[in-house]
């Protein structure tokens, strides 16, 4: 079921800067918004009443009143459910939405680029940096020459040294993070191929990418902010399972399991 909050999320990349300010407010504070009048929201978001009215029509509401009714209904439903139920429903929605979001062709293109790369660098900042580290951990254990880079200064240094045959895997929910984009452009100028993991289309990052794997922008409802990590983890698992079908990769992975579980390693790390 496509809720109002999901529709706002899906249309986010096509909104103007002012409309995004309104979208951010509605996603972060749906209960407060459902109890406010149009002038109050205009003042809080520093946009005009006319902009709010246009926004309502963009997200399939005839007017502001209908938008408020939908917000109130969704906020009320969230309030009836306990935390465990809300999380379960959100996780189910994410797994349902992510399946098939990245087409088979895009996945195959990404796998081929990873398979044939001389060196793989994985960029991400903030929570995207955690995703970069996790993917690096998986690829390294399968024998790929990979490195996670989560510092913006180190990113630009690495990008300056890219060569033909190197691959950049870039994690960015928005696809518009300035520091990351600067480094991606530098790497691209030096011959890198780019695969991006992002939630929005038609962004500077997707335009620089040979392949795009889609994640999901989380719907923020008060105390719950989830979605990106789970959808990214799903893609990381798909990549891992694909390469573990290769016998040599599987043997290499098993060597790392044996090394980490060895008595000597455990003793030295107590």
Automatic annotation (TrEMBL):
InterPro entries named among the record's database cross-references: Homeodomain-like_sf, HTH_RpiR, RpiR-like, RpiR-like_SIS, SIS_dom, SIS_dom_sf, WH-like_DNA-bd_sf
Residue span(s) of domain SIS: 110-249
Any one GO molecular function term: DNA-binding transcription factor activity
Keywords for this protein: DNA-binding, Transcription, Transcription regulation
Ranges of residues in domain HTH rpiR-type: 2-78
GO biological process, one term: carbohydrate derivative metabolic process
Protein name as it appears in the record: RpiR family transcriptional regulator
UniProt source species: Lederbergia lenta
Gene: ybbH_2
């Amino acid at each position: 079921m496509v809720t109002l909050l999901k529709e706002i999320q899906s249309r986010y990349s096509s909104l103007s800067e002012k409309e995004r300010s309104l979208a951010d407010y509605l996603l972060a504070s749906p209960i407060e918004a459902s109890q406010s009048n149009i002038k109050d929201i205009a003042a809080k978001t520093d946009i005009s009443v006319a902009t709010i009215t246009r926004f309502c029509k963009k997200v399939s509401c005839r007017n502001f009143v209908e938008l408020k009714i939908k917000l109130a209904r969704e906020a009320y439903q969230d309030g009836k459910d306990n935390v465990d139920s809300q999380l379960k429903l959100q996780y189910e929605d994410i797994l349902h939405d992510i399946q098939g979001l990245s087409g088979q062709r895009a996945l195959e293109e990404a796998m081929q680029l990873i398979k044939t790369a001389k060196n793989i660098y994985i960029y991400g900042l903030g929570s995207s940096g955690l995703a970069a580290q996790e993917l690096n951990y998986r690829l390294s254990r399968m024998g790929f020459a990979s490195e996670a880079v989560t510092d913006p200064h180190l990113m630009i240094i690495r990008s300056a040294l890219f060569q033909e045959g190197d691959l950049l895997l870039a994690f960015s929910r928005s696809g518009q993070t300035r520091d990351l984009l600067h480094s991606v452009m530098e790497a691209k100028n030096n011959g890198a191929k780019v695969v991006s993991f992002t939630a929005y289309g038609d962004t500077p990052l997707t335009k620089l990418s040979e392949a795009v794997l889609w994640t999901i922008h989380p719907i923020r409802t008060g105390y719950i902010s989830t979605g990106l990590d789970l959808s990214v983890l799903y893609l990381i698992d798909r990549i891992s399972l694909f390469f573990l079908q290769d016998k040599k990769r599987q043997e290499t992975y098993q060597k790392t399991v044996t090394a980490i579980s060895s008595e000597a390693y455990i003793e030295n790390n107590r």
